[in-house]
Amino acid sequence: MVHVEPAHLVELALRNTPPTDDDAEALRHVERCDRCRDELRMMTRVVTAARSAELVDLSAAPPERVWQRITQDLSRESAPARPPPSPLGRSAKRKLLVALALAVVAGAVVAGGVARHVLKRNV
């Protein structure tokens, strides 16, 4: 069974663009697949929580360790250059919070998939 790619699940959770035929096909798969349905549900919760966050929830840029952990979880490569600190408006902070939350969720999904694959190979 071919599962929906994590990046496509993120796009479905964000609902930033009008649905496409690929989206309809992915959603049909999600209806039948517990794993993809659970991942989409989790990502949708993160998006909802991040979009409802208030300015006080992210009063400062995340510490360097957050960027390193996200990079480590997603690619297992060296950390990207951290964006220079800049005064963020309310909209920019919200977008940053959503992006960070989705990056963490995507990292967890990828890590979980790798762990399942390794466990299946070792059984």
TrEMBL record:
Keywords: Membrane, Transmembrane, Transmembrane helix
Name of protein: Anti-sigma factor
Transmembrane segments: 96-119
